[in-house]
Design brief:
286 residues; alpha/beta; eight-stranded mixed beta sheet; five-stranded mixed beta sheet; 15 strands; 19% helix; 31% strand
Length: 286
């Protein structure tokens, strides 16, 4: 499965909150980064992309939609910029040059695909709304004097109820229907949501599982493109409690937080504003 576009303004915070697995060692990419793209993303990020630290190997070309490999062929970086959000996509250099494309925020948010790996279409008039990406942040939260492992889920765009075409956000109502509990303050551990679980294997976060509608094996509600590394303290807390706390909030409620104390402040603020639901999920794996 090819990875989707790299996001610069939403989710995936650095530092102790969440960690991605680095390539060991990173493989340099055959990327074309134009001066205008470099000016927007900065020299540091551009150099990381070229070094292979923060760029996919395989991808789906944002122009012709066929697979590409930045380790084997020249690849263009194409930066889509809205009013508040930027999305970096990849294309065969033979299809598109590296460039910055200005689109409306609505077009850009609608163009962010689900984890199926689709990418953004270059031509703004062809950009159509699709399913939002679910951003996952890991961190430890202190409740009643004890640290608990937690995952915070925030989509990159409003979530519409399946089968509807409205512009409303039904993310929290849909989760409440699944058994998530609304929170106005975080003073105690939320109740366990049976049938759901967090899949942790070899110290890495793989997926959040939900019950199958057909009664078979659980299916992935969220699944990482590649397993996400968690800190030793987070893993130790998960093994101790044998469960993980899951918090969810609508787009824009939590935001990108570089430290766990700031993440906790954002969680508390979302709860106070009536924009937070939570459950405890049993730990699957080790």
């Amino acid at each position: 499965m090819s990875p989707g576009p790299t996001r610069f303004t939403d989710r995936e915070p650095p530092g102790p909150v969440t960690h991605h697995i680095p390539r060991e060692p990173p493989v340099p990419r055959m990327l074309d980064v134009s001066d205008e793209v470099r000016a927007e993303i900065g020299d540091e990020e551009a150099d990381r992309l070229l070094a292979g630290e923060n760029a996919p190997g395989s991808y789906d070309c944002t122009s012709c939609r066929t697979p590409g490999d930045s380790e084997q062929e020249r690849t263009s970086t194409v930066l889509f910029i809205g009013d508040e959000t930027a999305v970096l996509a990849f294309a065969h250099s033979s299809c598109l040059p590296s460039q910055v494309v200005q689109v409306t925020e609505e077009q850009l948010r609608g163009a962010v695909k689900s984890i199926s790996g689709d990418t953004v279409d270059l031509e703004p008039e062809k950009i159509v709304p699709e399913q939002a990406v679910l951003g996952i942040t890991s961190g430890l939260v202190l409740i009643a004097g004890e640290l608990h492992p937690a995952l915070v889920v925030e989509p990159t765009a409003p979530i519409a109820r399946p089968g509807t075409t409205g512009s409303g956000d039904d993310f929290l109502p849909l989760l409440i229907e699944q058994g998530f509990m609304p929170l106005t303050e975080l003073t105690e551990v939320p109740p366990v949501l049976h049938g759901w679980s967090v899949l942790l294997a070899v110290g890495q976060l793989h997926a959040v599982l939900q019950p199958s509608t057909t009664g078979g094996q659980p299916v992935a509600w969220w699944q990482a493109h590649q397993p996400l590394q968690v800190t030793e303290s987070w893993r130790a807390a998960a093994n101790k409690h044998q469960q993980v706390l899951m918090f969810a909030a609508p787009v824009g409620s939590i935001g990108r937080q570089p430290r766990e104390d700031l993440l906790r402040d954002a969680i508390d603020k979302a709860a106070a504003n009536g924009k937070l639901v939570a459950v405890a999920m049993p730990l699957a794996g080790t």
